[in-house]
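User: Show me sequence and structure for the first protein, then do the same for the second.

Assistant: Starting with the first protein.
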Amino acid sequence: MAGAPARGRQAEHSVGLSHRVIHGYRRAYRIAGEGPAILLIHGIGDSSATWGDVIPELARRHTVIAPDLLGHGASDKPRADYSVAAYANGIRDLMGVLGIEHATLVGHSLGGGVAMQFAYQFPERTDRLILVSAGGVGREVNPALRAVSLPGADLLLSTLRLPGMRRQVGLFTRLIKLFDTDLGQDADELIDLVDALPDGTSRSAFISTLRAVVDWRGQAVTMLDRCYLTQGMPTLLLWGARDSVVPVHHAYGAHAAMPGSRLEIFEGAGHFPFHSDPVRFRALVEDFMSTTAPADWSPERWRELLRAGRPGSTDGAPDPAFDHAVDRDLREASERSAT
């Protein structure tokens, strides 16, 4: 749910931005390669530049599309609906404009929630799901994001951009890195979040997006109650073991709730495993693409799953250490569902 660091932008110029106007708003995106489509969806405050280290290699065998979500990057930032459902609609419309009928969706943080929502709204257009440190599968989230959801957030973000504050924040960043905290793993990316909000329009879009999914108690939206619908949908979960934004136990909860999903943990990595180890990230994505067939969706199968509803317990034997967390989040799901 955070911004793009400089290291994630090293290769951004190798795949330049393109633009299309959809519903009167300019949408920026990167597109490269040929083959089965992969759609990369960034997190809150980020942009398509965050995928700069992985796009060129993935584009060797695939058509790779990486949009700047509305309100982010070089896309327009209107006063608009910034809910995950609205973002899913925007992804569908961009795919329609580009002539992409279906794709494998790779979603990071907020983008993971958008990818899950897309698969829920448009299962017939979703080949696979790859969720990277995804939001929407548990309540916990970094306290800083909860704070920014409160009234007065615009003033707080404006203050952080003052010259003197930038130096103090830099000192704090070096300190938490020195003590090898989990937050230190993501410090550079989280600080760049502020740098990516240079004006009031950008800050307003960021706050609107955040408040659509986070409140003072934590994440306010979940897909956990509908994860059983991914049965038959190839799903890969990728997570950093030291994620300071979305705790790694959310990965285990999602894995338990998604029948047949695969789980890979990046030891030592934070919220951005595709920055920490882009080579491994690309290898896992390419292996997953080559060893799974696209989801075989049908109205009949969808109807069967809906009528059966969420199972009382998952198949197999999830790690007992995470059972309590999964049960808790499932109980909370009814009040946090996104329709």
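Switching to the second protein now.
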Amino acid sequence: MRHHEETLAAFVADVRGEPDAVGVVVVGSVARGTERADSDVDVYLVVTGDAFARAGEQNRLSYVRRDVATYAGGYVDVKVATEHYLAVAAERGDDPVRASFAGARVAWSRRDDLDDLVARVPVVPDSAWDARVVSFIAQARLYGEYFLPQGAKLANDFLRHHAAVHLVTAAGRALLAHHRVLFRGPKYLEETLRTLDRLPEDYLSLMSRVLTDPTPDAGAALLAAVEAFHPWPLPAAETLSVFVRDNELAWLTGTPPPEFS
């Protein structure tokens, strides 16, 4: 929409004269063409390493600019990054940061190669997708087969609800990884699942049941639907070991647990 592009142009005009500014990358709904009239304009402001360090010290790694908006209630939602940040995100960024660059476009840059760098961020190698499938199936099985029943057995409401949320998240992310679809964040899980070509039978209703009625039976029904959906490449006998590796040994391996990947 014109007012979003005018706001973007005003932001670029304001920052391009700054010596530490390297480029502006448009992301979010405006970049994807799915914006509403009242949507904000999401951007990454790419800066030098020194400027990024100063932004961190000043708690200015993310901020809002309302002064450049050309429409009522509008603003630019700014996240600060560097070229190194983009390179590392392309190598090992978590799903939300990778997903944030899906459909991204460079609005302005001092560097000719910024477009190529941005385009690499949302790309995940097949081997990484396969590893995610294994990790998330292990998560789903442990939360559905052990932690949720334990919460019921011990009358521990926190454990029941904790296990239910983690079961739904892990099962959903296993399905997303199976379809090679990035996880944008908890806010978008159900919305993204609805875009998949195929889901387990009655999956969304089973998911809702686990969240509203976190009982062992609800968890078992969801997990049974997921298990029947695909021959997952993780033998039952190896599930506990994978779960321990990914969670209890995360401090040792230096690899974030799957839910933070």
